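User: Predict the full complex structure for these chains.
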Amino acid sequence: MVASMNWVERLNAEGETREEAISQLRVILVRGILKSFASRGVDNAFAEDIAQDALLRILNSLDSFEGRSRFTTWAMAIAVRTAVSELRRRHFRDVSLEQVIHGENNTLDLGETDVRSAEDSIDRQALYDQLREHIETDLTEKQKTVIQALLGGMPVENIADRMGTNRNAVYKMMHDARLKLKQSFESSGVSPEEIQSILAGGA
Amino acid sequence: MTFSNDKLHRLLEMVAEAKEDLMDCDGCLEHIAHYAEVHLQGLSPREKFAEVKLHLQSCPCCKDEFEYFMQAMQTLDLE
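Assistant: Here is the predicted structure of the two-chain assembly.
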C-alpha cells in the first residue's frame, strides 16, 4: 500500500512522478466506481469520465486532505460523490421543479407506490389535517417548495440547481422545516412518539 | 400547494424522527472517509462520529452516497 503522505507528495511533485501517481489513482478510482455502480449498469467510459472529473477535484483539494483516513479512501469518497451527482444530474436533466412537485416525473429509486386512501384511520386523517395546517402557517414558501420536491423524489442537489442555490442551503431548509414542524406538533401537545404510534396504526 | 396523504405520511415520519443536525453535506464529506474506515474495521464509532451518523440518518442524499461509497471501499486495500 502506498502511504497517504507519499500520495500527496507524489501528486504535488512534477513530471513523471506526478503523472505516474495520477495514473495509479485513476485506475483505483475507476475500479471503485465500476464496483459501486455495477447495479446501475455504468460502463467503463462513464467510470473513466467520472475518474477524470474526480481527479481534478482531488488535485484542487490536496491541501484540504488532513490525513484522518487513508488517502485513497478520501479520494474515493470524492469520486463517489462526483458519480452520484452526475447520475442525478442526468436523471433529472429534463425535469422541472414544477413537474416534480405536481408528480409528473419519474422518481429515482424511491419505490413509492403506497397511496394513502380512505382506509386511513380517523386519528391518522386528523394528523394529516394538522400537518397541512402547520405547513401552511409555519413554513416559508421556499421550505414548502423544498419539502414538496423532496417528497416528489428530487434529490437535494438537483433542487439546489433549480433554486439557484447550493446543496448545503437546501439541506438546511429541509432540516429547519422538519424541526419547525416537530416543534409545532409539540406545542399543540402531540409528541413524536404519538405521531409514530398513530402512523403505525396504534393510538 | 397541495400535499397528498401519501406525502404527508412520509413527511410525518421525517418530522417525528427529526433531530438537531449541526452538520451539512460538505461537512459530512470531510469526515465520511474516516467514518467508513472505522465502520469497516468494526470499531465503536467515536464521539465525534455521532454528528456524521446523525447527518446520514437525516440526509437522504448523503445516505445514498454512503451506500455506494461502501461498495467502492471493497476495492481498496485497507490493510
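Residues 25-40 of chain B form the longest helix (16 residues).
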